């Protein structure tokens, strides 16, 4: 059966016997629908890579085989283990340091500005000398959001200082300039 597909909202409709594109020229979002003999024709188009990059990683994920999905998960898990675990394996001093946890979102403009604060040479030096530092994208880590949300909500950026046992020592919500953050880290 042929399909009508919307490139704007990614909706599709499977044409029934006796129906044609003339019966459904536009999507509910207002975009003109395109005709494809098979749904695979839509997902295998040359311009598909451009659409996938615009619509996000989940479209890339859903079109992959189970083997590729499992390999992706394994790579992500190994990456997380390496990033979070290697520093403690090779440097025992890190076990006694408190943790500085910064929760951010890529869509957050204050988070972008806060990145400049975190890159300030004095701030960076203070963090490197005194803390185990972790930045966590809340869009990819729902467990972290659940753990640190207050009343079910989490403002970003949020800066949390944890003791060596993982207990919250201090918590700050919102953007801080370098001087403010240095005051917090003292």
TrEMBL record:
PROSITE patterns: THIOREDOXIN_2. Signal peptide: none annotated. Residues 15-186 form the Thioredoxin domain. The keyword Zinc does not apply. It comes from the Archaea. The keyword ATP-binding does not apply. Keywords: Electron transport, Membrane, Transmembrane, Transmembrane helix, Transport. CDD domains: TRX_family. InterPro entries: Thioredoxin-like_fold, Thioredoxin-like_sf, Thioredoxin_domain. The chain crosses the membrane at residues 70-90. Coiled coil: none annotated. Belongs to the glutaredoxin family. This is Thioredoxin domain-containing protein.
